[in-house]
Design a protein that fits this description.
The structure holds 2 protein chains of 2 kinds. By secondary structure, chain A is mostly helical. Helices cover about 55% and strands about 10% of the residues of chain A. The chains are: A mainly alpha, B mainly alpha.
């Protein structure tokens, strides 16, 4: 009945791990290129943290994809 | 003129040295054992025991050195700093995830400190009120801990403020690097 929390409302799925592996990049290499800690890439890949728009754009640029190809809003089941 | 330039050089050297050491410690993987969830759980438990346990022991049994208490708190804070990669110390060294987690920890810490201090005030006031009720109107309540315990209380309050943000960071640690 109550309002859904921000986390519940905004579940964002991503294909970073798949695309990163295809590009032959480690978490550390991707992290270095976008200017964050490698742990942060892990949190994003596992869906534990939704990145800012700027970081999402940077990740997509490094992976040579559009943001929509990397991140999608997860459908409610 | 010369002394000023020497001062400036020393200041710049000190600043650079400090930043380099922090950057090295923050990124060095040999300290990753301090950053796992189990390490954070142990570290948080030790910190809570040091913060509350030592003064509690002093109140009941006496004879604890104040330097032991100060040393234990300093050691806990140092280990906590290493465990969370100096996230509270230098904005330039943290990314947006750590920034968000740090802000959440600050919010939690403020709430916890406020709650603990409010509870302590209520407890002291209530204790005095009950004593006055039972002993009659001639009773004067004095909160006298003795000079030694006042020092412990002072260190405890300082420690409470310093340590709470690290405890509020949470015990969730880092996963293994890949």
């Amino acid at each position: 009945m109550g309002r859904k929390s921000k986390q519940e409302e905004e579940r964002v799925a991503n294909r970073i791990e798949e695309l990163r592996t295809q590009a032959g990049l480690s978490r550390q290499e991707l992290a270095d290129q976008v200017g964050v800690h490698y742990q942060t890439i892990g949190y994003i890949e596992r869906g534990e943290y939704s990145p800012s728009l700027v970081l999402a754009l940077k990740i997509a640029a490094v992976l040579d994809k559009s943001v929509e190809q990397v991140f999608q809003i997860e459908e409610d089941k | 003129m010369n002394s000023k330039s020497l001062e400036e050089r020393v200041e710049v050297f000190g600043k650079n040295f400090d930043t380099s050491v922090r950057a090295w410690v923050s990124n060095d993987r040999s300290l990753n054992f301090l950053r796992t969830t189990s390490a954070r759980l142990i570290l948080s438990t030790i910190t809570v025991l040091a913060l509350y346990g030592i003064p509690a022991y002093q109140m009941f049994y006496r004879g604890v050195s104040i330097w032991l208490y100060v040393g234990a708190l300093v050691l806990c804070v140092l280990l906590q700093k290493l465990s969370i990669r100096f996230a509270f110390d230098d904005d330039s060294q943290i990314d947006e995830y750590q920034h968000e987690r740090r802000n959440r920890a600050y919010r939690r810490a403020y709430k916890r400190v406020a709650t603990i201090l409010a509870l302590a005030i209520i407890l002291v006031a209530e204790n005095g009120f009950s004593l006055k009720q039972s002993l009659g109107s001639g009773f004067r309540y004095s909160f006298d801990l003795g000079s030694e315990n006042w020092v412990f209380l002072g260190v405890f309050v300082c420690g409470l403020f310093v340590v709470q943000k690290y405890l509020s960071w949470g015990i969730k640690g880092e996963s293994r690097a890949e």
